[in-house]
Known about the structure:
Layout: H1 2-29, E1 32-42, E2 54-57, E3 83-86, E4 103-110, E5 118-125
Antiparallel strand pairs: 1-2, 1-4, 2-3, 4-5
Amino acid sequence: MFLGLVLVAAGLFGVIATGCSDSEESAVNETRSYTVTARVMTVPEAGNPGSEFQVHHEHIPDFHGEDGNVKVDKSGVRGMKPHIMAFPLGPGVDVSELKPSDMIELVFVVNWSRQPHYYVTDFTILDPGTALNTHLIEPAEEDTPTDEDEPIDDDG
Length: 156
């Protein structure tokens, strides 16, 4: 009887311990997709395996880190700041029609448990006049009034 209780308790502990690590692993194994406006900086050169696809992308305020939570840097900025970044190309993605300075809407996925951790899955060429917003996007506060919430002053 005592041995049976020990085995049951050990089995329950195993289920509980596995459950904890499964939830942590699910965050790492989760694939997330992001869409962002970007300016093409470099495109891979045919015959040059060392060349890269690089873009200058806008702020991605909902970017999740390896722990599954939205990243917050030392200065309190949420997500991924705008910067120039090299992106591996996913299967079937052909960027040969792009040239430096082209504006694109870039779609990429991130899965921290795979190599590479992130890669481009699609893109759309935007109007050449599209501006790149390199400012940080502040998260909206639920209780912050917007212009729509302000009373209209007809006496003004």
